[in-house]
Amino acid sequence: MLSKQWRPWSAEELAQAAAWREEGIGDAEIGKRIGRTRGAVAVKLWTVGSARRFDILHGNNDPVTDERIVAERDARREASYRRSLTQEFFGDPPIGFSALDKRRAAHR
């Protein structure tokens, strides 16, 4: 039975899961092989793949490290604590994380 407790992905697990996905093996089977749920496999491979595609499109061919993803997530989470009730209600992004804020920062 799979553990319900979260545990970090090792580099070996991630590489093996990605290789199996490339071979056409389904997420449920990959999960059984490495002891994770189908959902955990699907989300992890999608997250890493999306970040990698974004970097390639924007000219960064360096491999994406989990530390960058975690750092951005933590920064966004910290910024979300400073949102007003109105911003929360209407779903406005945290200050500094909207498309306009990012565009202004790029032109400075």
**What is the distance, rounded to the nearest whole angstrom, between the alpha carbons of the first and last residues?**
53 Å
Helix-residue proportion: 55-70%
Number of strands: 0
**SSE order, one letter for each helix or strand:** HHHHHH
Structural class by SSE content: mainly alpha
Mean pLDDT: 80
Q: What best-fitting shape do the alpha-carbon axes yield?
A: elongated
Count of discrete alpha- or pi-helical segments spanning 4 or more residues: 6
Low-confidence stretches: none
For the largest beta-sheet, the strand count, sense and barrel status come to:
none
Rg computed from alpha carbons, rounded to a whole number of angstroms: 17 Å
Percent range for β-strand residues: under 5%
Which characteristics define this entry?
108 residues, mainly alpha
Describe this structure in words.
There is one protein chain. The mean pLDDT is 80. This protein has a domain of 54 residues. It starts with 10 loop residues before the first helix and ends with a helix. It has six helices and no strands. It is mostly helical and 108 residues long.
